[in-house]
Amino acid sequence: MSISARNTRRIFLRLESSAALDEAEIVDQFLTHFGYDKKDSSQHFIHLQPREYRHFFIIIDIDYAQDPDANVQELPHEVYLVSFKGGSTDL
Q1: Is the overall model pTM greater than 0.85, yes or no?
Q2: What single DSSP character describes residue 64?
Q3: How does pLDDT run along the chain (91 residues), one tens digit per residue?
Q4: Which among 3, 12, 51, 58 is placed 20 to 30 Å from 76, CA to CA?
């Protein structure tokens, strides 16, 4: 699995609300998994949905700082179902 070429786009992560990690840890693991430096997280804009239902979403605007005038409604988007292997805290 790989994220397309580095350019501004919107990523949707769908998770079960019972996920053991907090949102920041989930985002850090996702960015690390796809080769982004966690220290460079200021390049991305992160939207968090409350865990009020069975599933929730974390939305990440990747490399948004490179193009802050981008119309987010027109950004390419990717959707990922995030699960944790065997109840672990690894994606």
Answers
A1: no
A2: G
A3: 344 445 788 999 999 888 878 888 888 888 888 887 666 666 788 888 888 888 899 999 888 777 778 788 888 899 999 887 655 556 6
A4: 51
